[in-house]
Design goal:
With about 220 residues, this protein is mainly β. It has a domain of about 150 residues. It is about 5% helix and about 35% strand. It has one helix and eleven strands; from the N terminus they run αβββββββββββ. It is globular and about 50 Å long.
Length: about 220
């Protein structure tokens, strides 16, 4: 009986003590290189700021009227001013220089921000108002510059003249005609075309120092 048990153990453990086959060698196959992604097609940008997401408000547009103190004095109290309109929109800045025709006083109380008397036209989004003279009618007039916004959002710098008071007996209807002439189109990034427009006026001395216009000066 003991002999049979021993033989069974030998049969069951026939492979005991024998070396098994060597383990399979695992080779680290380098993974395939990632497929290079082609860079996006270059787009000529008109603004450094990214375009707004759908439904987001368009970037604002700032108008800065710079009126230089070194005006040219003319006979009979008339003057010629150097003016710059600085337009900042969508990360871009553009400057539009202008020299006024013969004008009189430039004063804070004339400006819309100081509740001036010049009536604004529906398309006007920025104004710089001075005393002037309507050469055709021979009357004192409002004179200056406006920024107008078209139906498609385009902006333009426009010179205007509007005789003060009434033109009764001067024109057939008695109404004073508004004379306007485009000085230059204003280029803004498409992303800012419908943006909110803000404006401010500064005077610039001979050293180039800007002083914000104050409405504190009283009417004469």
């Amino acid at each position: 009986m003991k002999l049979r048990v021993a033989m069974a153990v030998v049969l069951l453990c026939g492979g005991c003590g024998k070396a098994g086959p060597p383990p399979a060698t695992v080779q680290n196959t380098p993974s395939a290189k990632p497929t290079a992604v082609a860079p996006p097609t270059a787009v000529t940008a008109v603004a450094t700021a990214p375009l707004p997401d759908a439904g987001a408000a368009a970037p604002s547009i700032e108008l800065v009227w710079r009126v230089f103190d070194d005006f040219k004095q003319l006979p009979k109290g008339w003057r010629k001013y150097r003016v710059e309109l600085v337009v900042r929109a969508g990360g871009t800045t553009k400057t539009y220089p202008y020299t006024t025709p013969r004008v009189g006083t430039f004063a804070p109380w004339m400006q819309l921000a100081c509740e001036g008397d010049y009536r604004v036209q529906p398309a006007d989004v920025g104004t710089l108002v001075m005393d002037g003279f309507d050469e055709n009618l021979g009357l004192e007039a409002w004179s200056g510059l406006v920024v107008k916004r078209g139906k498609g959002g385009e902006l333009s710098l426009v010179r205007f003249t509007l005789a003060k008071g009434t033109c009764q007996g001067v024109t057939p209807t008695g109404d004073c005609p508004l004379e306007e002439k485009v000085v230059a189109p204003i280029a803004v990034p498409p992303s800012s075309a419908d943006g909110k427009i803000t404006q401010r006026i500064v005077t610039v001395d001979k050293a180039g120092t800007e002083t914000p216009l104050s409405c504190a000066r009283a009417r004469p």
